[in-house]
Amino acid sequence: MMEKESGIMDGKWNKNTKRDWRYPIAHKEAWIGIALVIFHFAWWYGFAYGLGSEPIESYTYAFGFPAWFFYSCIVGFIVIIFLVILIVKFIFVDIPLDSDEKGDPYS
Fold first, then answer.
1. DSSP H helical segments within 15-100, as ranges?
2. How many CB atoms lie within 10 A of CB 8?
3. Helix or strand or coil: residue 55?
């Protein structure tokens, strides 16, 4: 019974089984999280290796830090924190993680 409700029969996915309504939401939010990680890595890599690949004598400085470090690590951290707060507040959906009163996780 439990295998049929989960959609997995004999180790294979059964398409005819009723699917939890929260899965598509979790799937979408997981892809948004992956996109944020890729954006953060691209930001960090672009500024760190774009500005930091020059000779040390040609470095510019921002608030006492080399510009590549300031923009890749400090500003990048602030930007990604701001983006995560905005996305969680305005795009992510608050869904219950437990089953309903009847014990049916698929309702």
1. 22-51, 67-69, 76-90
2. 13
3. coil
Three-class DSSP category at 63: coil
Confidence of residue 21 (pLDDT cuts 50, 70, 90): confident
Phi, psi values for residue 65, rounded to 5°: -100, 150
Residue 8 · residue 14 · CB < 8 Å? yes
Digit-coded pLDDT (tens) for 47-77: 999 888 888 888 899 999 999 999 999 999 9
Over residues 81-97, the pLDDT tens digits come to: 999 999 999 999 998 88
* Burial 35-69, CB ≥16 within 10 A → b, else e: eeeeebeebbeebbeebeeeeeeeeeeeeeebbbb
Record the pTM: 0.72
What was the pLDDT predicted at 5? 53
For residue 4, how many other CB atoms are within 10 A of its CB? 12
